[in-house]
């Protein structure tokens, strides 16, 4: 039996699992189980996609607590070979999960899923935010700075207080506001 769109289905499923795992990669055992469960008739699909260069298999150091001690372990992971492609696929899948604009806006609030990413900009959050800065204006006619309005308000409130003892918080807010503004400018070339 010939299956159509098998690679596209595999990529979408992988993106979905990355969103569910709140990461841009999957541990190799989770990826193997995912492909074994969903693509049983093509047992080598994951290996083929790695060999074709769509995914990369690598080792990442994880830190986990064991008896109140941090233990380092090496774990094999799988992730998209082309980070920007992976970021766009993951972000697109994530945005499609919201039924309406109000649900999307609540996800960008301070305690929402994307609100937390704003504070994690230079770690795993940057690529996803870059992708969202292109996808959201095209689908919802909103810009990221409109969704992160609370971030700018927090900055201006803190700036008005001008508390010298909390410069780190002020710097962090200014830095995050600048990053959101930069995302707007950088996203224009992708639209």
Question: Main traits of this protein?
Answer:
single chain, 191 residues, alpha+beta, three-stranded antiparallel β-sheet, 10 helices
Main beta sheet, described? 3 strands, antiparallel
Lateral arrangement of strands in the main beta sheet: 1-3-2
For the CA atoms, what is the radius of gyration?
19 Å
Strand runs, count: 3
Mean pLDDT metric? 84
Query: Please, how many helices?
Result: 10
Extract low-pLDDT stretches.
none
Shape: globular
The share of residues in extended strands comes to 5-15%
Order of helices and strands: HEHHEEHHHHHHH
Distance between the termini: 39 Å
Helix content: 55-70%
- Strand pairing plus helix content: what structural class? alpha+beta
Tell me what you see in this structure.
By secondary structure, the protein is an alpha+beta fold. It has ten helices and three strands. It has a three-stranded antiparallel sheet with strand order 1-3-2. The longest helix is centred in the last third of the chain and has 21 residues, at 167-187. The relative contact order is 0.10. The mean pLDDT is 84.
Q: Could you give a quick summary of the protein structure above?
A:
With 191 residues, the protein is α+β, with helices and mostly antiparallel strands. Helices cover 62% and strands 14% of the residues.
How are the SSEs placed, and which strands pair?
Blueprint: H1 6-21, E1 25-27, H2 28-38, H3 45-51, E2 55-66, E3 69-80, H4 83-96, H5 101-107, H6 113-118, H7 121-140, H8 144-147, H9 149-161, H10 167-187
Antiparallel strand pairs: 1-3, 2-3
Helix pairs in contact: 1-4, 4-7, 7-10, 9-10
């Amino acid at each position: 039996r010939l299956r159509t769109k098998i690679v596209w289905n595999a990529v979408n499923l992988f993106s979905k699992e990355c969103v569910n795992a709140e990461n841009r990669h999957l541990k190799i055992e989770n990826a193997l189980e995912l492909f074994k469960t969903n693509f049983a008739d093509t047992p080598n699909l994951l290996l083929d996609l790695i060999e074709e260069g769509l995914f990369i298999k690598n080792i990442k150091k994880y830190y986990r607590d064991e008896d109140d001690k941090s233990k380092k372990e090496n774990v094999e992971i799988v992730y998209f070979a082309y980070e920007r492609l992976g970021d766009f696929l993951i972000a697109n899948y994530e945005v499609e999960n919201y039924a309406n604009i109000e649900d999307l806006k609540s996800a960008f609030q301070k305690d929402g899923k994307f609100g937390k990413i704003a504070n994690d900009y230079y770690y795993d959050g940057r690529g996803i935010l870059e992708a969202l800065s292109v996808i959201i204006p095209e689908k919802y006619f909103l810009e990221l700075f409109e969704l992160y309005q609370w971030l700018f308000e927090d900055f201006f409130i803190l700036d008005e207080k001008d508390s010298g003892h909390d410069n780190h918080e002020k710097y962090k807010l200014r830095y995050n506001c600048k990053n959101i503004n930069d995302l707007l400018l950088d996203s224009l070339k992708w639209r």
